[in-house]
Amino acid sequence: MTKDIHLKFCLLAILVFVQNSLFSQNLEETIYSKTETFIANKNPKSYDVLIKQESAFKDDISSKDEQLAYVFLLCNKAYYLMENNQLPEAISNYENAQKRYNAHKLSNMSDFDITEYCLKPLGNLYTKTNNYTNAENTIKYYINLADKSNNTSHYISGIINLAVLYQTRGMHESVLDLIKQTEKISSIPKRQKEKLHTLKTSSLIALNRSNSTNSNVDYSKSGTTYNEHQLQYELALNQGDYEAALKYHNLAISFQKKDSFTAREIAKTHLEKAQLHYLLTDYKKANQNLEISLQTLLPNLEPYAIPERTSLYAENTFIDIFDLLARLQSNPEKALQYYSLSFYVSNLLTISVTSQESKIANQSANRKRSEYCLDLLFEMYQKTGGLDIFERALNYSENQKASVLKAVFEKKTLLDQHPKDSFLIKEQQLLMQQERLTDVLIKTQLGYEISKNDSLNKQLLDISIQLKTLQNKIALKYPQAETHISISKIRSQLLTDQAEMVVYYYGQRSLYQFIISQENTIFNKIAINEKFKNSVTDFIHLFDNPAAINNNIKAFTSQAFSLYQQLHVGEISSAKNVLIIPDGLLNFLPFEALLTKATESNNFSNMPFVVIQQAVVYNSNIELYLDPQKTSKTKKLLGIFPVFESSNQPLTYSIKEAESIKSATGGTILMHNSATKQSFIETASNYTILHLSTHATGGDFTNPASLAFSDEPMMLNELYSMSINPDLVVLSACETGIGKLQKGEGALSIARGFQYAGAKNVLYSLWQINDASTAQLMTLFYKSFQKTESAFTANRQSKLNYLQDPEISAVKKSPYYWSAFVYYGKLDAPKDTNLTLYYVLGFLTLIFIVFLILRKRIINERKSS
């Protein structure tokens, strides 16, 4: 009986195995069959059929053969979607394909060319949708694969596509460096060689080096190929010869086979013609070509109608079309409608962007459009006035300002509100991991360290895809309303803070200024010409070294008052406090060191500095100012003081600074060899005040900003990867507010790194500060801070006390020594020590009155008895 049962069990197991094998084989064949049927007749109807078939079997896919078949299906779906301008959907399918291919290690059992059929088009789609970081990581990933497998064709394709990406971003020197790497490679196919040469020449033209010996194209002769005509078009355009540019553009198009053009390429061709006609002031033809371009992308659009938002999709060609259509309008409101559509499409493109580098690049591209909108609104305001126009202009100013930093704060706030949400926790972990890997990648590229992992680009791409999936889920779970800054809300907060607000927008042609008080709003426009630029930069350079001011005090006082007038700072009323939101070069300007009136005095203590008249606080964006903050009840300070006594740049006075801070706050002080980077990383989140007295650099176009510790420096991206929530960060170090200036986002400085990590209130420096005077200022700062519990108040008071201190020499009272530190954050009201005293006196008085009443009652009772 037992043997029979065993035999039956074995037969049943064999039957199940055979059935499963047949099912598996059948499923694999089914996937290939359905895909090939679709390929043979690609159209919307057959695509819908494929989608229904896919949904029926995709959950049953298990074996590697089935996974490979499904990768094949996904790539073909993506290609169809790409051809039909459904770019986000195409990207999602390519991402799914490469994810499955890698997760199941399908390269070990198949010669399916994942680079050709997935990674190349995916990288190009990222470029087309302005996802520059993912584009670069994808292309570098398959360049690395090609290098390992000695696949020259794929390697050169990667170089070409990377060069196209860099050209899209205006990085023409990087294009030339890339192409130079291919010069020693033999057996490059002719077509790829021609493409490399075209890219190289195109970048030389953009750099105004087209006559260099590196270029062998004769631009004086008529070309015989598409590429030659295209280069002649670019050269003529770059030289301002728009008639010639139009001629060569038409000749280039004539060499292309019309049936080889995609809808997107046709749209771009007519857009380029429209742009040339616009430059030739032939606005009728410009409008006609824009209409053809738009109709090509939106076939169902009524002629010359403004599209509805719902009909648009993530395609960057739309942005250029709408921008030019806006500039062709005589009605400002209609122009603003077109600009609004450009912003909308830009937002569609950046929804799936996860790296801050790509977000900043897209934000920078939006700035030019914002300025055009401000131009229109300023003209309208000049004619009619009105708070509604002022408010609209203010929103255009702020929407593209520090938006990346603002988004980070919003994510942290949402996590604080829902600390157990697994989606939000995972998102935070992935964002930190992304920055850590970016830090390693940057250090590897700069040669600071040798990476043990050659797949950093792939890892970053994988994290980005995970983040995109998570962020879609988070957006559905916690939908965010479109923000709008209202004047009434601003005024309500300003009333609480007893302050006025000054907002600047630094454009290419004009500087816009918004002044907001309880009684009034002022909208100013200042021309950005060479004279104005020189006024700002010359004043900033006065703080390059102490001698620049002290050797010519008269020049300083003249420039300080002149700039005060040019920036209309005098139009601010005598409010107790002033909130300044700077922009562009003004991020590096110490407003407190400007002079409110002309002076002949050589005595710095007697000069009418802004800091004497008003307390100044800064912020990066109005929304960051309006965002409520929770302050910790306990004040725990962590001080970092490496001192560097054995180096050639010792910070000797920081020892005295540490002693005074320890005495004033009782905080934890890490000095000398204890002030390591790892100690800071491990302990920083446990403290409410972080004080770092060390060396720092603002970096340059290649190297990011960095902060020194006793053992090794911390690079900016490593700081981004931290998660802290202090009430205050004090950066007692050089150039902590200096960094690569990004339009809209400001300086990518150490101070911004701390803000990104979670610090909303930061005190930092704008230049290379003096060790001794900094120690004095910090001592004065903490004395005031202990009394007032207000960093905002203490920052100003320390400067006033410094200026009036009779023991400090007149030379050391130059603003070089005291005005470097600026405070970004909230206007925290100082603790009213007098009010506390009144409370105590009132309480004692009450006790005394009660005592007198009781005493009188006891005396009366004794008399009556």
Can you describe what's shown?
With 865 residues, the chain is an alpha/beta fold. Helix content is 59%, strand content 8%. The strands form 4 sheets. The protein has a 6-stranded mixed sheet with strand order 7-6-8-12-15-16, sandwiched between helices. Helix 1 packs parallel to helix 3 and helix 7 packs parallel to helix 9. The longest helix has 39 residues. The N and C termini lie far apart (114 Å).
Total of DSSP H or I helical runs spanning 4+ residues: 34
Strand content: 5-15%
Number of strands: 16
Structural class: alpha/beta
Contiguous runs where pLDDT drops below 50 for at least 5 residues: 1-24, 212-220, 833-839
Largest sheet: 6 strands, mixed
Shape verdict: globular
Record the strand order, biggest sheet: 7-6-8-12-15-16
**Assembly state:** single chain
Radius of gyration: 33 Å
Cα end-to-end separation: 114 Å
Q: Averaged pLDDT, please?
A: 89
The helix content is 55-70%
List keywords for this structure.
about 850 residues; single chain; alpha/beta; five-stranded mixed β-sheet; disordered N terminus; 16 strands
Short summary:
By secondary structure, the chain is an alpha/beta fold. It starts with a helix and ends with a helix.
SSE order and pairing:
Elements: H1 2-40, H2 44-57, H3 64-83, H4 87-103, H5 114-128, H6 132-148, H7 152-168, H8 172-180, H9 190-206, H10 226-238, H11 242-254, H12 263-279, H13 283-297, H14 316-327, H15 332-350, H16 356-384, H17 387-399, H18 403-417, H19 422-446, H20 456-477, H21 487-497, E1 499-506, E2 510-516, E3 521-527, H22 530-541, H23 547-550, H24 553-566, E4 577-581, H25 610-613, E5 615-618, H26 622-626, E6 637-641, H27 653-665, E7 668-671, H28 677-683, E8 689-694, E9 696-697, E10 706-707, E11 714-715, H29 716-720, E12 728-733, E13 740-742, E14 746-748, H30 750-757, E15 762-765, H31 771-788, H32 791-804, H33 815-818, E16 821-824, H34 833-864
Parallel strand pairs: 1-4, 4-5, 6-7, 6-8, 8-12, 12-15
Antiparallel strand pairs: 1-2, 2-3, 9-10, 10-11, 13-14, 15-16
Helix pairs in contact: 1-2, 1-3, 3-4, 3-5, 4-5, 5-6, 5-7, 6-7, 6-20, 7-8, 7-9, 8-9, 9-10, 10-11, 11-12, 12-13, 12-14, 13-14, 14-15, 15-16, 16-17, 19-20, 22-24, 27-31, 31-32
